[in-house]
Amino acid sequence: MINTETFDVFPSVDIVDGIAMTSNSATRLTRGESSTLRRPLGTPAEVALAWQNAGAKWIHVVDLDAASGRGSNSHLIADVIAAVDINVQVCGGIRNEEILSQVLATGCQRVNLGTAVLENPDWCARAIAEYGDKIAIALGGMMSSPNFTLLREVCTKTSSPVIAGGGVSSIDDLRVLAGMSNLGVEGAILGQALHIGKVPLENALAAIQSLE
Fold it and tell me: Which residue from 38, 85, 97, 167 has the least number of CB within 10 angstroms?
């Protein structure tokens, strides 16, 4: 049996222009034209509370404005942290020590480093050495499925917790990832599939619990 006490589902709150929106990966091409499914879900705090009420133990906040270089939503992240009673991890645009310090100052429990791991691995290694379990690595794919091979490779290179950072599109994906908890995969971020109703959070959490 899988010990799911070491594996968590991280429902995502994606912030764009001050609003929690459906995931950016919910974009598809139709007859050669970009057709986005993005829509507002509510304020970041409201959406975070909804995920908490559904049973989540963690909230994953994505500052998409920071990721695209259009500014920071640190004040809204602080609002999320004040609104919920569960852990919050943050990602988006965290590329250097100054931004990392600003995000940690919101009071979040953990920060996820994504692109920076590939672009600036030396700085990421120093950040992990300094902040320990406040730093996690988030790597993954798009909606099709998580990059299981990459996740296994990353797990062999670091003792820091590894989170599947994208591509979870089914309950089966979550089951496979939970089975990798012994390798160091400590959770999976649930974004687009959750936002568009393909994988309800209650169903995802129940599926993981059934593996115990």
Answer: 85
